[in-house]
Structures are given as structure tokens and as C-alpha cells.
Fold:
Amino acid sequence: MIDKSRGYRVVSTIGSSRDRDEIERLVELGHAFIRRQDPQYSLFPEDQRENATVLDFVQTLKNASIRTLGPELIFGRLFDEIGFGVIPESLFRDIVVARLVYPTSKLKTVDYLYRYRGKTVSADSIYLFLDRLNGRYHQTAQEIVYEYSRRILKSIRVVFYDMTSLYFEAEDEDDLRKIGFSKDGKFQCPQIMLGLLAGENGYPIGYDLFAGNTFEGKTLLPVLQRLQTQYGFDTPTVVADAAMLSRENLASLDDNNYPFIIAARLRNESEATQQDILRRCRGLSNGQSVVIERGHGHRLVVSYSDKRAKRDRYNRERGLTRLKKQVASGRLTKEQLNNRGYNKFLTLTGEVVVAIDEHKVEQAAVWDGLKGYLTNTQLTPDAVIESYGQLWHIEKAFRISKTDLRIRPMYHCLRRRIEAHVLVAFVAYSIYKELERRLHEAQLPISPKRAAELTQTMYQMTFRLPTGPRKQNVLLQMDPEQQQLYNLIYPKSAQK
Structure:
């Protein structure tokens, strides 16, 4: 420093550097030194001098000094604890965490990484990474997910299988992307089919992809046998919905000694069987059930539920109300009719007269509250019903993937990128499930979706004190809800 009052004389040397950041730090140290030498500086009371120093320091901070650290603190930690850190690609971690916190297109992921992580990544580098991700790390990532679920479940005794369709915002078809029956109602869009196998409570075991026009009933055995061979778990009880109910599937499950519980379509049974079911179920109270032997070791369990009866009645009446309005308006023509949904209650008179068939309505009402389950196990009826009742977890998994993780719609065209996109969503779902498990065990009233929102406002400040030798990183004060989430993931910090 130069003392101009007595000519140019070196009072103190702060330091020298060619590094821009270091030069800025030295300038800050120089200003602090000048303030301490200024006689006027001592005229301030002690607290005012401290305030002035703090204000000077705060004014040196920039937007770049503060960044969002929450996603990495919470989801990055779970990423490592589950075991995904063995995959030597930092971009894999970034894309998975982004899928959990900011699920959007890969181009938007570039913005996310820059704004929230301070990382400059090009869209081309993300696409190139996706090109090699599935080929190099697909098996490793799936094995990590399986081992995680096995640790949580202790053993794989029951598996749940279901399929969903994932559509593309494109018109072109290829070997994988095909137009087929869309569960999203996007019948004009090409799609692929995703078959997911999960354990109890929806913990993921594995998945497979099929062409969009694949009949889902033919996918169960290939997926199940591949995963069982790959991981070597004992033969489990298979639980699936009515889409898997076919003679071919049942015979295959029997031939391969798989116990199964599959939803039965009671209204598709023979007339004699339907009459037997109604006769034996007449007078059932809430929660009661009957068992009908089907031969070949198969049993049909039929249960009655007041809640289900109320829902069946409500849905039918709502559908009929909508149907009656269409009939009254005259807009419903013969060409528009089919036998799906509540159109089955319609009847045609002569050439063009459309009317509600009240007899069919009465016939449908006698089935209110009844649900069937076909099984080759010797489980009690209550155990069969309870096991099937967990199938909603896999339906929830699809719902989470489609909404919270936004696995669809997809914009990729290349198969390897499509496969990589699904793999990222599968890994993200396993992290979602682990967070859900911890929140549940800790009885915290926070959902995983809410947790993702909370992480977006958990900040870290990077600074260097005026007289400090190096940069420091400090987490800014969190609100109570954020602190609960942080303490859940870092339990030792709560003890300090």
C-alpha cells in the first residue's frame, strides 16, 4: 500500500498474483486494510464499524456466489448410498438427479445444470452420453437396483407385473416404435411397451421394452424368466392383472411351476359359471368371499366389498347419465356404436333408433361389489386378496414415472437413446422409492414430490472473508421443513 501523505512509501504488501480470482481477493484485502488505517474509521462506535465491515463484505458477493445445492445434498446422497456411484460418469449422476428435481427434456436439462449446478454442459455432450449409456452401464445399473430392492425386502417371494405404453411426439414408426393400443389414449402416436417387475410395496426388480404393437399378455413369462435367471432368486408367486389372463399364459405359468394370482374377468365366464357365482355370492357381507374349484389345481376366489359396490354403482350411473344425454341429443348414430364401456347398455331398434336397454343395466347391477381372483396357490382367500391388493404399487410406479418423473412423452428417435432414457427413469424411480421409505419410517409428513420442491431452495454460499486465505462454502439457513429433510438424510447433523 502507498502512503501519499509522506510521499510514495510502501506501508504494506498485500500480495501479488496473475489469477483473476486471486487478484479480486487481494483487492478486497486491500480495501479492508485501507478502512482500518483511515482515522475516520475509528470515529464509528464499535458496532457501527462491524456493520460497515459486514456491509462492505456483502457488497463483494455476486449472484454466482450462491447456488442451489439441495438436489445434490438430498438426491445425490441417496444416489451414492444405493450404489450408483460405481458408474464412472458424472453426467449420469447429473441427469438422474435432474430427472428427480427438474424432469424435462434433455435440452432443458442443460439449462438446469447451468442454473442450479453451475455446470456448463452442451446438449450434444448429453446426447453422446446417452448413446453410450445403455450399452455400457445398462446391466450394472439394473443390478444395483435389484440388489437395493433385495436388501430392503430381504427376499423376493412375491413379484408384481404390469405393462404400460409410452408414446412419442412423432409420426414415424420403426422396429421399436409402433402404433398400438395406447393406455394414454394417444392412438395416433407411435409408442413402445414397458413391462415392469416389482417386489412387495413396489420396489423395482427389473424391466424390459417391447415394440409398441406387442400384446402385453405375451410379455410376462419372458421378463420373469430372464430376471430370475439373471439374479437367481427362488421361484416367486406372480401377481398380475386380468390382461395376463389367457389359457396360454396360465398353461405356461403352470408348466414352469410358477404360483400365480391373476385378476379374473367374471363377466367373461360361461353362462353356467356366472349363474353359479351369483348364486353362491348372494347375501355376502362386506369382506366375505367364496371359493370355486376350477380344476387343474386352479381356484376362483370371488369377494364382495361394500366400497367396491358403491364405486361400481356410481361409475355406472355416471356413464349412463352421459350416454342418455348423447341419445337424447340425437348425435349418437349407429356408426358410432361399439360394445365397449357403457355402450353395451345400448340397443338398436329398426334402422336408426338408439335406446338404453334397461334389462342390460339390471343385469350389470347384480355384479356390483364382486371381484374375482384366479390362483393355483393354496393361500387362504384373504391372503390371495391381500397379495393382489398390492398390485396398486406397480400402478403407482407407472403413475410416478409418467407424472413426477415425466418419462413420457419421448422425443428420441434412436433406439439406444430411448433405452437410455428409460434406464435413467428406472434409476430415478429407485431413488424416489428410497426417499419415500425413509420419509415413511421417520413419519415425516413430506411426500417425495414435496421433498423435490424443497431441495430447489436449499442454497450454498461460496465466499472468501476479507482477511481469509481461501474460499469457504456455507449452507444458508433452511426453513423447518427443509431442515427436517436434511436431518433425515444426514442424521448425524441433527445431533450436533
About this structure: Residues 41-45 have pLDDT under 50 and may be disordered. The chain has 16 helices and 13 strands. The two ends are 44 Å apart (CA to CA).
